[in-house]
Design goal:
The protein is α/β, with parallel strands linked by helices. The protein is 40% helix and 21% strand. The mean pLDDT is 95.
Length: 395
């Protein structure tokens, strides 16, 4: 399906409205979806709906697609990232027409029911192009898992649970409960866990914290009581689940990973953000490439320095910088260790990552050599994207 020239002009003239009010429109969209299809709440992170990051991420996805509708290839890294999340959450082709239907309802509602049919037709055509792109990619991702029974949420058992840092941070070792084969993964990927609480299904993505060993998966979870809304899945797992309990999860997904043949890897973590980076550092150690690694880990208290002992075993003093309440030293440390050939990997709060990206910009470091893993939907963090404002609550 292609757009007519008239439709392209309509999209071009209306996209500034979406940039200004896109989050409100997608919040209306989600409100209608969950009202008419409450079962779809099961494939969304409800916390991200409540705090508004998911409506903002969808708004930015649509806005960027409209802006690049003639060349979606430039958005392929973001599209692949989202497609992996969709596969992990079990989004299916039949879900896309539902979103498309309520996108038009939301646009019309926002415009007071006075929208021109030609506007709705243009946006419908653009959405169809974007949806078909996601569907095609996700079909391939599902096919990579093999049999259909491997493509959904599978039964696992908790074989080990241990507190590994203050917070607390708790590590879970998970073994397949149906004796099926574990799927391989690359360091940087995540699992998607599903729990049932108060009659509702909830999902959450968690980074794998060690290279694949062929026997178990391992994740680490930080208790989340220091902000609202509190982490439903994280807190339930820490407080209510024990060794021997069963849990369902979907198989590893994600596009974040090591750059092949990089000459220097600089990892910068904030707090629990070390989890995904630790697996990547361990991976390089297994490849006898520890000498190519530098790690900067920012924490509030020393007891929150997850994997500090393991990192000290792998890295020398001039490779491992633990900054305890020392963010003022972060810029100085980055300037000390950065090289022109350095690939930088970031994971932490959006405040920390914005600071790091600012420091890297001052060092004139190429953005193509900066790789980011986020705690929230990545497209909710787009700079110069859709305004982060809405009055409507999706749920």
């Amino acid at each position: 399906m292609s757009l007519t020239e008239d439709q392209k002009q309509i999209l071009k003239s209306t996209s500034p409205i979406f940039k200004e009010h896109g989050k409100e429109i997608t919040s209306i969209l989600y409100k209608h979806i969950f009202s008419n299809h409450p079962e779809l709440l099961d494939i969304f992170n409800r916390t991200n709906q409540k705090n508004g990051t998911q409506p903002l991420a969808l708004a930015n996805t649509i806005y960027l697609a409209i802006e690049n509708i003639d060349n979606l290839e430039v958005l392929m890294p973001q599209i692949l990232l989202i497609a992996h999340k969709h596969r992990a959450s079990t989004v299916r082709p039949e879900h896309y027409p539902i979103v498309g239907k309520y996108l038009l309802v939301a646009i019309d509602e926002f415009l007071g029911g006075m929208s021109d049919p030609s506007i709705l037709n243009a946006w419908a055509a653009a959405y169809k192009i974007l949806a078909d792109t996601f569907i095609d990619i996700e079909k391939k991702l599902y096919a990579e898992l093999g049999d259909k029974q491997e493509q959904g949420f599978l039964p696992f058992k908790i074989t080990k649970k241990e507190t590994i840092a203050g917070g607390p941070v708790v590590a879970f070792t998970l073994k397949r409960n149906d004796e099926g084969e574990l799927h391989d993964y690359h360091s940087g990927q995540y699992l998607t866990l599903q729990i049932k609480k108060q009659g509702c299904l909830h999902i959450r993505h968690y980074s794998l914290i060690q290279p694949f060993d062929g026997k178990t998966y391992r994740i680490a979870i930080k208790q989340e009581n220091d902000h609202e809304p509190k982490g439903i899945v994280s807190n339930a797992l820490i407080n209510e689940y024990s060794v021997g309990d069963k849990i369902t999860l979907s198989l590893p997904a994600g596009t974040f990973g090591l750059v092949k043949d990089a000459k220097h890897h600089l990892f910068i973590a904030g707090g629990i953000g070390i989890t995904v980076l630790s697996a990547m550092i361990q991976d390089l150690h297994k490849q006898d490439k520890s000498d190519l690694v530098t790690l900067i880990h920012c924490v509030i208290r020393e007891d929150q320095a997850v994997f500090a002992d393991e990192m000290r075993e792998i890295l020398s003093e001039n490779q491992y910088y633990l900054l305890i309440q020392s963010k003022h030293l972060l810029q100085e440390t980055i300037e000390k260790v950065i090289r022109s050939e350095t690939d930088v990997y970031l994971c932490g709060s959006d405040v920390l990552m914005n600071k790091v990206e600012e420091y890297l910009s001052q060092c004139n470091h190429p953005t193509s050599q900066i790789h980011v893993e986020t705690f929230q939907p990545s497209l909710s963090l787009v700079k110069n994207g859709v305004k982060n404002q809405s009055a409507t609550k999706p749920i």
